[in-house]
Amino acid sequence: MTEFLQYIANGLVIGGVYAIVAVGFVMIYNVSKVINLAQGEFLMLGSMLTVSLISMDIPYAAAIVLAILLVTGIGVLMQKYIIGLAKKATPLSLIILTIGVSILIRGIASQIWGKDSYTLKPLTGNDPISAAGVSVAKQSVWVVAAVLIILIALWYLMEKTVTGKKIKACSVNTLAARLMGVSPSKMAMLAFGISAAAGAIAGIVIAPLNVTSYDVGTLLGIKGFSAAILGGLGSPLGATVAGLLLGLLESLGAGLISSGVKDAIAFLVLIAVLLIKPTGLFGERSVGKGGL
Q1: 2-116+139-276 belongs to CATH 1.10.3470
Q2: What are the alphabetically sorted keywords of the record (predicted)?
């Protein structure tokens, strides 16, 4: 039972990262109907920029804030000067475009940081926290806290602010939103910025639990996208639940069966769910009514 609880704890931590990445996919898709397959690179940039800024003797907290701001700016620029200029492109063309951006960012990162792995020290020490025989790193608490903070912040933005209502308007009908004085392109830039910031935060909180490198965002981006599809591209809540579910399945699969099949188990569940309910666990029959 203790081992089982340990697997659950580990799964919730990695699932939290998948959830953050998945929410980023959903945020962008809801506003612009673009599936941004460069989302994983935001995660990589967040961790790598933090490592570089700290190496320049910038205080830890300031390095984190600056890295998040830089990645947010990259996300906004990506929407404005790449995605925004391809308004008439087909959805498939936009997907290929974001794959190209992902490869470009990864290539530039490999030239800047090389192909070595880097470490980022934990935010609050290395001593683990133990309870009921289950031991988790203190950094794991920051991962869970990041998930909760991001979800609460997004809920407040979407439900309690005028900006959130504008974003919702664009997700439902961009033409009607434009006629009401809302700029879909500005809301899309905002969505990319928020998504990039969330990805950077995920990269920063997960890096101390492992190592980070120029290509660390590739697999995490794929897992986050899988969670977004599994939960339903139109549902932030569904993406969160699906991210946690994938993390749990991976941890249990690695612990109870073999570490070599953990990815296969997660994707088998994804395939099974989509065969039964193609819109995902929380998806609607129709998501949105057209893009920019």
Answers
A1: yes
A2: Amino-acid transport, Cell membrane, Membrane, Transmembrane, Transmembrane helix, Transport
